[in-house]
Write a structure and sequence with these properties.
There is one protein chain. The chain is of the alpha/beta class. It has 16 helices and 15 strands. The strands form four sheets. An eight-stranded parallel barrel has the order 1-2-3-4-5-7-10-13, surrounded by five helices. Strands 6-8-9 form a three-stranded mixed sheet, covered by helices on one side. α3 runs parallel beside α5, α7 runs parallel beside α9 and α15 runs parallel beside α16.
């Protein structure tokens, strides 16, 4: 199997996000985000790391785009930093912010690389968080206004748009568990945030249609499609229940389906978010594609075993698979199964893209700092591309694959302790050293490497 077995227009790209790579957090009018605040709060991020400098893509984007071009990538998925456009999250526009993204997009196009822009990849302007953040319905309205401004300013220069990246993370990790910014720990707040994120998504799509733009627009979700630990009825039901919050809560409204009441019923002491008249129709605004961010497939059982009691009677069971540095099992067959499930659940009516797929491994440079061997990542990418091709051969409408990530960067609460990049980054010296995985994809895209 090789690149010739994929559809002719299959898009292979790579991805990053603004706070993870841009740096330049306090220049050219950029305001503060919740991640600026969170990463500077003691104990929240490994080693006290922040995205203040990161890999400085704000100044080094030409170098990065040249590396993308040399690899033959057809697209770059980046995100627009909301506080770089609207420092307060509303009102006055910072033109220097748009000037940067125009330079970035122009440079991409000069190398025949498509620009896929994500409007929100977690860096909410801090002033909006001080008003309740995503738990405040008004934030969805502000997001719609910000989106509209981006559509009007960047217009057709963007080849593909994504409204939100992984709203589950924004809602649950940000407001439910406290692992991500803004660090709140209340499931009811997570529900409210998730609801408002979906409402904001729908409003953003409405604004896009109102601007009569032609490029496709979608959303990227990190769905959970776990496999039951056995084929017993109990484990099959448990695996389905495990999809309530991470999958059904965020996918159903986009498809015009109901929120998972079963999930709410498991927490009778909490009040589900109020569903306002007209909101379901807004959330279900037609999208042109669905982005899937896939990393692993968990195994779920109904057997409590040594686990603490779950409010929803499902438990994650250890698997035999090798794991990445994140502790995530490496399960390429799970990607195949997820693609099949999503295609079936959406009745094959929505084109799919894998908008993130990659692994963190313990990469080390050679003694001369010239080479980085990452054979585990090469095999990870190879096996997941193979799974993607198997799904395509079965008739699924999968149109592209984006490797996460272009370059080692700020990995949220893990700081710079986890490396996902195809390019090794030395943050102190600002050096970029392509890894073996970079060359693997380069050769694969060129048709010189088989799966």
């Amino acid at each position: 199997m090789n690149i010739k077995d994929f559809p002719k227009n299959f898009l292979i790209g790579t991805a990053t996000s603004s706070y993870q790579v841009e740096g330049a957090t306090d220049i050219d009018g950029r305001g503060k985000s919740i991640w600026d605040t969170f990463s500077r709060t003691s104990g929240k991020v490994a080693n006290g790391h922040t995205g203040e400098i990161s890999v400085d893509q704000y100044h080094r984007y030409k170098e990065d785009i040249n590396l993308m071009s040399e690899a033959g990538f057809g697209a770059y998925r980046f995100s627009i930093a909301w506080p770089r456009i609207q420092p307060d999250g509303f009102g006055v526009i910072n033109q220097k912010g748009f000037d940067y993204y125009k330079r970035l997009i122009d440079e991409l196009h000069s190398h025949n690389i498509q620009a896929m822009a994500t409007l929100y990849h977690w860096d909410l302007p801090q002033p909006l968080e001080q008003k309740g953040g995503w738990t405040n319905r008004d934030t969805a309205l502000r997001f719609a206004e910000y989106s509209d401004t981006c559509y009007k300013e960047l217009k057709e220069s963007v080849d593909m748009w994504i409204t939100l990246n992984e709203p589950w993370c924004s809602a649950v990790l940000g407001y439910g568990t406290g692992h991500h910014a803004p660090g709140k720990k209340d499931l009811s707040l997570a529900w409210s945030a998730g609801y408002n994120l979906l409402y904001g998504h729908g409003l953003s799509v409405q604004a896009y249609r109102a601007n009569s733009l032609k490029a496709p627009i979608g959303i990227s979700l990190n769905l959970d499609t776990p496999r039951p630990a056995s084929q017993s009825h109990e484990d099959v039901v448990a695996a389905d229940r495990a999809m309530d919050l991470r999958t059904y809560f965020f996918l159903n409204p986009i498809l015009g389906k109901a929120f998972p009441q079963r999930h709410f019923d498991s927490y009778p002491h909490l009040t589900p978010p109020e569903i306002f008249p007209g909101d379901p129709e807004v959330m279900a605004e037609k999208i042109d594609f669905l982005g899937l961010n896939y990393y692993f497939e968990p195994s779920i059982t109904a057997d409590q075993g040594t686990n603490e009691k779950s409010s929803e009677d499902f438990y994650e069971k250890p698997s035999f698979h090798e794991t990445s540095e994140m502790g995530w099992p490496i399960t390429p067959d799970g990607l195949y199964r997820q693609l099949k499930w999503v295609s079936s659940y959406t009745e094959g009516k929505i084109p799919l893209y894998i908008t993130e797929n990659g692994g963190a491994f313990s990469d080390e440079l050679s003694e001369d700092d010239m080479v980085c061997h990452d054979s585990q990542r090469v095999e990870y990418l190879r096996s997941h591309l193979r799974a993607s091709l198997e799904a395509i051969k079965e008739g699924l409408d999968l149109r592209g694959y984006f490797a996460w990530s272009l370059i080692d960067n700020f990995e949220w609460a893990f700081g710079y302790t986890k490396r996902f990049g195809l390019i090794y980054a030395d943050q102190l010296k600002q050096k970029r050293i392509p890894k073996d995985s970079y060359y693997f994809l380069k050769n694969f895209i060129a048709g010189d490497e088989n799966l």
